[in-house]
From TrEMBL:
One of its GO terms (biological process) is pyruvate decarboxylation to acetyl-CoA. Its EC number is 1.2.4.1. It comes from Stappia albiluteola. InterPro entries: DH_E1, PDH_E1_Alpha_Subunit, Pyrv_DH_E1_asu_subgrp-y, THDP-binding. It comes from the Bacteria. This is Pyruvate dehydrogenase E1 component subunit alpha. It holds the Pfam family E1_dh. Residues 46-343 form the Dehydrogenase E1 component domain.
């Protein structure tokens, strides 16, 4: 398919002579499936909600209102929104600590997410979990995990449950380029392919694991091929183009749902902000970040298409921005004024 750069036949393994991931991203062909007007507007609104939410979270963190870790998703919005547009109700998502975007895409209440960041009782984990630990069984979102790679085994377990229950759902299991070198990832791949579990392994390759570039950390950098020795098919996808993400996701979901087992989608993406709020970002140049922002921004791409096709005017887009800002401001207000958990909550919801 044109949305992807390469496809794994399941029997091929590539050597060390691969290009740099940035170069590969640039080579990814454009999406073949255009979006309708409604789809473009939906993608625009959803990605903007994540971006504005994260900007606000960054501000609250700077004001000292958010304690602990806080990893922002800015730049990567097209990945989760494209997958959201492809999934069916009942499909699950599970991810690591860079999780606010996934929560919003899975329709978790922005107020509950923001209040969790500020540690308030109205937070989705009653203010006791924080940025990395929120869940909603009802919305099929399974966290929120701070241990790099841990969610890969858990996501495989979700896939096992789906198969056992014959419910037709797929477990979308997200992890980073850094996590792709974790041992449990490969134990999971083996089981998932052996038992033909409905799991999409979504590798969000944003080029860095904390301050280490993928080229410095990984012996092979084409992560879509990491399932080759297990016979798991995989593709690289332009993760900055929401249309390419949806297209590849639809195909992967269909593969899983039809009983063929797991699938790997390597989303070539980029995070604009530091690894976490405490990252001085000395490992990459400002020019590198600026280039991605100006040339590849996922939201700007949709915005440009909407304007070019006459599907929205500048004024229409400003109105959407205002609506989104209102939702985010309301969440931030709540998160600042809701009460902190009662002291009696110290001993509830914990394993002793
Ligand atoms: C088992 C484990 N080892 C190390 C860490 C520290 N750590 C947190 S994030 C991270 C980098 C992971 O990078 P990547 O998987 O690329 O995800 P990204 O942050 O880029 O989204 C590391 C090493 C951890 N949390 N858990
Ligand atoms: Mg990374």
């Amino acid at each position: 398919m044109a949305a992807t750069a390469k496809r794994n036949t399941g029997t091929r393994a590539r050597g060390a002579s691969q290009g740099r991931s940035g170069a590969r991203a640039a080579k990814a062909a454009p999406a073949t499936a255009e979006f309708s007007k409604d789809e473009e507007l939906h993608a625009y609104r959803e990605m903007l909600l994540i971006r504005r939410f994260e900007e606000k979270a960054g501000q609250l963190y700077g004001m000292g209102l958010i304690g602990g870790f806080c990893h922002l998703y800015i730049g990567q919005e097209a990945v989760v929104v494209g997958m959201q547009m492809a999934k069916k109700d009942g499909d699950q998502m599970i991810t690591g600590y860079r999780d606010h975007g996934h929560m919003l895409a899975m329709d978790l209440d922005p107020k509950g997410v923001m209040a969790e960041l500020t540690g308030r009782r109205g937070g989705l984990s009653k203010g006791k979990g924080g940025s990395m630990h929120m869940f909603s069984k009802e919305k099929h979102f399974y966290g929120g995990h701070g241990i790099v790679g841990a969610q890969v085994s858990l996501g495989t377990g979700l896939g096992f449950a789906n198969k056992y229950r014959e419910n037709g759902n797929v477990a979308m299991t997200f992890f980073g380029d850094g996590a792709a070198n974790q041992g449990q990832v490969y134990e999971s791949f083996n089981m998932a392919q052996l038992w033909k579990l409905p799991v999409i392994y979504v590798i969000e390759n944003n080029k860095y694991g904390m301050g280490t570039s993928i080229e410095r950390a990984s012996a092979t950098t084409d992560l879509s091929q990491r399932g080759a020795s297990f016979g798991i098919p995989g593709e690289q996808v332009d993760g900055m183009d929401v249309r390419a993400v949806r297209e590849a996701s639809e195909k992967a979901l269909e593969h899983c749902r039809s009983g063929k087992g797991p699938y790997i989608l390597e989303m070539i993406t980029y995070r604009y902000r530091g690894h976490s709020m405490s990252d001085p970002a000395k490992y990459r140049s400002k020019e590198e970040v600026q280039k991605m922002r100006t040339e590849r921004d996922p939201i700007e791409q949709v915005r440009a298409r909407l304007l070019e096709k006459g599907w929205a005017s500048e004024d229409d887009l400003k109105k959407i921005d205002k609506q989104v800002r209102d939702v985010v401001n309301e969440a931030a207000e709540f998160a600042q004024h809701d009460r902190e958990p009662d002291v009696s909550e110290l001993y509830t919801d914990i394993l002793l």
